[in-house]
């Protein structure tokens, strides 16, 4: 991975998963997995020339993705 200062702006997995805005969703292993997934996507976008998002944007993206993962599937009622 090329040395780009944007990567240094990214928060650690630990910092993201310990943020109080995500504390009500403590599914620790899943939370860490989702945080890694989101940060991997951010790294790809940085590699494509985008600027690093703010910490708040990363936490919001992790929360939104976690909501998607934890949302129960729609089952037919027949």
Describe the structure.
The protein has 78 residues and is an all-alpha fold. The chain is 58% helix and 0% strand. The protein is built from 4 helices and no strands. The chain has helices at 5-8, 13-17, 28-47, 55-70. Helix 3 (28-47) crosses helix 4 (55-70). The longest helix has 20 residues, at 28-47. It is globular, with a radius of gyration of 14 Å. It starts with a helix and ends in an 8-residue tail after the last helix.
SSE blueprint and pairings:
Layout (H helix, E strand, L loop, with lengths): L4 H4 L4 H5 L10 H20 L7 H16 L8
Distance between the termini: 51 Å
Parts with pLDDT < 50 across at least 5 consecutive residues: none
Radius of gyration: 14 Å
Shape: globular
Q: Which structural traits does this protein have?
A:
mainly alpha, 0% strand, 78 residues, globular
Write a brief caption for the model.
The chain has 78 residues and is mainly alpha-helical. Helices cover 58% and strands 0% of the residues.
């Amino acid at each position: 991975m090329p040395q780009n200062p944007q990567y240094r702006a990214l928060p650690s997995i630990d910092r993201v998963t310990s943020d109080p805005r995500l504390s009500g969703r403590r599914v620790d292993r899943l939370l860490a997995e989702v945080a890694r997934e989101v940060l991997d996507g951010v790294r790809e976008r940085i590699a494509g020339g985008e600027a690093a998002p703010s910490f708040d944007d990363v936490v919001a993206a992790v929360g939104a993705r976690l909501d998607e993962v934890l949302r129960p599937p729609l089952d037919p009622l027949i």
